[in-house]
């Protein structure tokens, strides 16, 4: 049986990248799950297990972010002894990547080639403003369209009111209250998993991501566990997993994230805090630090109540974090450049 890969997102962007790599013994496939040295991939002939070829391992030795991950389109090779190997990773259209905890501020790819990144934040316990802002910055940086999903809306007396409050934290981002048991908001989520489109879910453990995956897939494909008595989530997904959806499209589940480090691009941060960026453009001085400078539009907005102190402090904290990572990244690149120079 031959499967139509276009229903999983294969299009001319990936096809043009594949053509120079095409041989009689190769084919294109999409990564469903990547383990250590082995990928589960879905191609025209169905689901296969493929080991990483030496070229892929060599290419990723200097940058682990080049390793294949869930959502990637890859070139696989079929060998006479029935082995299947991943020969190369095709260029990514979008990439969801977070900073790792190591000192050189390298990146960890969480997912690739998604059209929408849904930040999933539960209404119970109370949603966390700062976590939503941080995750939205990550979603914006991915290049995909961001979406804020407020899950477990059946646990809240007035979910629409909370959605209205969060609309102010995400200028221009759709906010979707969702409840799987009550069946509310599901149509808005399903339309983002149309044939050829991929939805990635990003959020903490216990946010309800696996429940949403099962709903979209029409079956129990991901384990679900109840949150603890203290309201904290239990990790149910320890790996990234791309799940094809009946009728076409795919949903990408990511592990629950306790902490998310931002990389040094800063573009996602500017879009998440577009309200503050717009105010900063009105300051008297272009290099205004929004402290004691005269004519500061940001500080004026705090004084008149149109901008909360909490949101300003959240922006400052993330701005500082991005600046620190930018400095560390520059040091890492200079060090790598010195190592490559001939002695």
TrEMBL record:
Binding site for GTP: 151-154, 203-211
GO molecular function: GTP binding; GTPase activity; metal ion binding; rRNA binding
UniProt KW keywords: Cytoplasm, GTP-binding, Hydrolase, Metal-binding, Nucleotide-binding, Ribosome biogenesis, RNA-binding, rRNA-binding, Zinc
EC number: 3.6.1.-
InterPro entries referenced in this protein's UniProt entry, alphabetically: P-loop_NTPase, Ribosome_biogen_GTPase_RsgA, RsgA_GTPase_dom
Binding locations of Zn(2+): 283, 288, 290, 296
Pfam families associated with the record: RsgA_GTPase
GO biological process: ribosomal small subunit biogenesis
Main location: cytoplasm
Cofactors named for this entry: Zn(2+)
Gene3D superfamilies: P-loop containing nucleotide triphosphate hydrolases, Probable gtpase engc, domain 3
Cellular component, GO annotation: cytoplasm
Domain EngC GTPase: 112-258
Subcellular location: Cytoplasm
Note on how the cofactor is bound: Binds 1 zinc ion per subunit.
Quaternary structure note: Monomer. Associates with 30S ribosomal subunit, binds 16S rRNA.
HAMAP family for the chain: GTPase_RsgA
Record-stated family: Belongs to the TRAFAC class YlqF/YawG GTPase family. RsgA subfamily.
Role: One of several proteins that assist in the late maturation steps of the functional core of the 30S ribosomal subunit. Helps release RbfA from mature subunits. May play a role in the assembly of ribosomal proteins into the subunit. Circularly permuted GTPase that catalyzes slow GTP hydrolysis, GTPase activity is stimulated by the 30S ribosomal subunit.
NCBIfam families: ribosome small subunit-dependent GTPase A (TIGR00157)
Protein name: Small ribosomal subunit biogenesis GTPase RsgA
